[in-house]
Amino acid sequence: MARKKGRLTQEVNAGSMADIAFLLLIFFLVTTTIASDKGILNVLPPKQDPNQPPPEIKLNERNIFNILINANDQLLVEGEYIDNTEKLSEDIKDFILNFGAPDEEAISLFNSLPASLRNRAKRDASSSDHPMTGGAVVSIKTNRGTSYERYLEVLDQVKRAYFEIYAERVGLTSDQYRALTGKTPAEKELQDRGKEGIPMAISIAEPDKIGGN
Amino acid sequence: MSKFKKKTSTSQNIPTSALPDIIFMLLFFFMVTTVLREQEILVEQKIPQATQLQKLEKKTLISYLYIGKPKNIAMFGTEPRVQANDVLINTKDIVLWVNQEKDKLSEAERDQITISMKADREVKMGPISDVQFELREADARKLLYAAVGKVQN
């Protein structure tokens, strides 16, 4: 030390700076939970008036895509037992895009669809009438003993069918369509154009009482 | 030792002066993204997976409900329970809780309240539908089933 007296520039030892920073870094690494407000959006139906019976909605059986999930998490789709949900969203897409008995409005909707969706659209009279309001409804009915995970898996597939149709209409991928926030007018326009005429008609029935608590 | 030392005149040190800067950069990233948990979760939370996730934009409009098996079985039993804020509540108290949450929002935003339901994947639909029924009663109809992304194949 005595030898170096004459030297003017005396450097501060910065080597331990990294250690201090590391310590802080590790603290924040451990405590961090990257907030994720992601999920599947659902809008519940309005409150029921106890004095009034629920309104009778007349829908033909062919216009309803029935999905039943029992207490053992088994699926019954349109009266058929299925093992997994892999093909479910494709079936739902076929159901939504079916024009069994289109009226004039539905025909104009059909003409506005892009070619890829038009090719997909069938004219099966035994399936849904048209994708518009009252024409195609996807109904999910669970049991009180159905697991939440299974229910969400099915709902996810139904949503997927709709989002893929919407996205295809505006020429985006499904991921891009779902990322639209509707904040800017351009995004809002895309969002509305995707949905126009094809409302997301998902009916979630009150679960029945057997097999649950 | 000194014999060898003389040989190499070039310094072999890697300059480490930039190291703190790099670490600091990482540090700041985690400091900014960190959310210190302000409430203790009293129920088990294994969030289910889904693919069709949507993100909510306005965080102030979201209120959280946690549903799952209580962690403290000795005290609260094994049946799924609902947690709001930092206490376990009964299903019938949800209406009250929703109204309290609505009061925190400004007049114009009250009907836009969104409930983020963080339910454990083990929960059955029975308790879930009871909660949904109460939410309908409370007129908080926008509901988000919280889920984490699944890798699509």
Q: What does this molecule look like?
A:
The complex is a heterodimer of chains A (213) and B (153). With 213 residues, chain A is an alpha/beta fold. Chain A has helices at 17-31, 88-96, 104-112, 115-120, 148-170, 174-179, 185-195; strands at residues 38-43, 64-69, 75-77, 80-82, 137-143, 202-208. Chain A contains seven helices and six strands; from the N terminus they run αββββαααβαααβ. In chain A, helix 2 (88-96) packs across helix 5 and helix 5 (148-170) crosses helix 7. Chain B starts with a helix and ends with a strand. In chain B, a hairpin with a 2-residue loop joins strand 4 (81-84) and strand 5. The interface between A and B is large, with 53 and 53 residues.
Q: Which H/E pattern describes the elements of chain B?
A: HHEEEHEEHEHEE
Taking all Cα atoms into account, the compactness measure Rg of chain A is: 27 Å
* CATH top-level class of the domain at 49-149 in chain B: Alpha Beta
- Distinct helical segment count of chain B: 5
Which geometry of chain A do the CA atoms define?
elongated
Mass-distribution shape of chain B: elongated
Write out the strand line-up for the largest beta sheet of chain B, numbering strands in chain order.
Answer: 5-4-3-6-7
Total strand segments of chain A? 6
Radius of gyration of chain B: 25 Å
Give start-end ranges of low-pLDDT stretches of chain A. none
Key structural traits:
heterodimer; A: 213 residues; alpha/beta; 15% strand; B: 153 residues; 8 strands; 32% helix
In short:
Chain A is of the alpha/beta class and 213 residues long.
